Predict the 3D structure of the following.
Amino acid sequence: MRKLFAPAVRLANHPARADRDLPGQFPARTGQVGQAYDGGFFYGGGVPPYTWSISAGALPPGLAINTSNSEVKGTPTKAGTFSFTARIADSTGTFLDSPQTITISG
């Protein structure tokens, strides 16, 4: 697999805005134990279709990523700060790893 160049990946609880979709680490996103979480990643570049995964670390317990559309949903069951690496791969096998953090309060 080849790494993508000039990526734009963003984890968000809100709709994407082009002026905020930048490559690299993004501010921590937050959630609450026992309350539904609905977020996802936004990406620009590569050749669709895309496949999303977590290549290192883990999402907070109770959350899961949809590998075809990047939605991160669920109900967190544990408080803490969870660091992970989101990976997007395009149809050519080119990929991008992007470090992300979600903080869940109790």
